[in-house]
Amino acid sequence: MKILVIGGSGFIGSRLIELLIGDNHVVTNLDLRASAKFPELTTLGDVRNSEDVRAAATSCDAIINLAAEHRDDVRPLSLYESVNVGGAHVVADCAAELGISRIMFTSSVAVYGLDKVSPDETSPTEPFNEYSRTKLAAEQILTKWVEADGTRSLVIVRPSVVFGEGNRGNVDALIRAIASRRFIMTGRGSNRKSMSYVGNVSAFLASRLDSTPGTHLFNYADTPDLTSREIVDTICAALKVTLLVPVALPLLLSVMAGYVFDVVAKLTGKSMPISAIRVRKFCAETSVGTNRLRSSGFVAPFELRTALQRTIENDFLES
Q1: Phi/psi zone of residue 3: left (φ > 0), alpha (ψ -120 to 50 degrees), beta?
Q2: Is residue 169 part of a domain?
Q3: Cα separation of 130 and 83, whole Å?
Q4: 259 given a catalytic annotation
Q5: Residue ranges in the chain modelled with pLDDT below 70
Q6: Has residue 227 been placed in a domain?
Q7: Sequence-distant (≥ 6) Cβ neighbours of residue 68 within 8 angstroms
C-alpha cells in the first residue's frame, strides 16, 4: 500500500513510519520539517495547504493524519483552529478529489473532558480547551467525508497521554522534574491516569490499515491504568530517587500557584514548567474505557510499567 503520513517527522510518526516500512508499505512523509530518522521520505509542506497535501497524496491509497497543534501553551490560540480543523478540511477534500478511500486520524481522549470515569467510545464528549474542541471538530469533518461514500474507511484513534523514548511531552516533563528533585506531589494521588506507550500506539495504528468501509472509532490506552501516585512511585524507583518534599500539596494551593506561573508566562512570553491546566490535568481522573480496543484482537507489544522503565533507561539513565 502507498501511504501518505502527514506529520510523520514527529514523535508518533517516526515510530509509525518505521513499522509501515517494515510491513513493506511505500511511505511519503509530509511535514513542516524533515524527519531526522527518514529525511529521504520527507516532503516539506503544511497540512493547511491544499496544494501541498494534494501533491503528496497523489497516487496514494491511504492518508494518516498525525499533524496537530497539541501543546498546552500554543499561541496564538487560533493555531488550534487553523491546523487541527483547517487541516482536517484539507485532508478530507484532497482525499475526495483524488479518490483516496482510506483515512486514519489521531484524535485524543481529551474530547471527553476532565474527571470522567472510564468513558468509552459511546460516551458524550465535553471538550474543555481549544485543543480538545478542535480535535473533536476534526473528527466531525472526517466523519462527514466517510459518510458521503459507502466505500470509504475512516479510523479514528483517541489515545490517552502518549509517552516514550525521545518524547518531550507531559510525561517527560514529569520524569525530568522528579529526576532534578523539583517535583512536589499534588493532590491525594488516587486519580487514575490512562497512558499510552508510543511503541504500542504506533503498532495499533499500523494494524488498522485494512479496516473495512465505515467509521472505526477506538480509545487507546495501555492497561492496567496507574494512579498518579503509582506513576510517580514507578518513576522514582526507576531513577532511584526520593521526592524532596515527601508530603503532597493540596490541590487548591497548587492550582493557585499554576495561575501565578500563567501570568508570568503571559508577561514574559516564555513557557513555564508549571501552569494551572497542567496541575488540573495531573490531578484529574483521566482513565478511559478500552473494551473496544481489547475486543479488536490487538495485543500490545510492550507492558505499561516496562515501557515506562524503558523510556527512563533510554532517555535518562544512559545519558
Answers
A1: beta
A2: no
A3: 12
A4: no
A5: 72-73, 244-247, 249, 271-273, 318-319
A6: no
A7: 7, 83, 84, 87, 106, 135
Q: Which of 131, 197, 220, 259 is catalytic?
A: 131
- Asked whether residue 267 is domain-assigned, the answer is no
Q: What is the CATH number of the domain that holds 212?
A: 3.40.50.720
Query: Structural domain tally of the chain?
Result: 1
| Residue 48 near residue 61, CB atoms below 8 Å | no
Q: Which three cell numbers stand for residue 304?
A: 505499561
Range of the domain at 134: 2-162+196-221+288-298
Q: Is position 24 within any domain?
A: yes
What local confidence, expressed as pLDDT, does residue 273 receive?
63
Global pTM?
Answer: 0.87
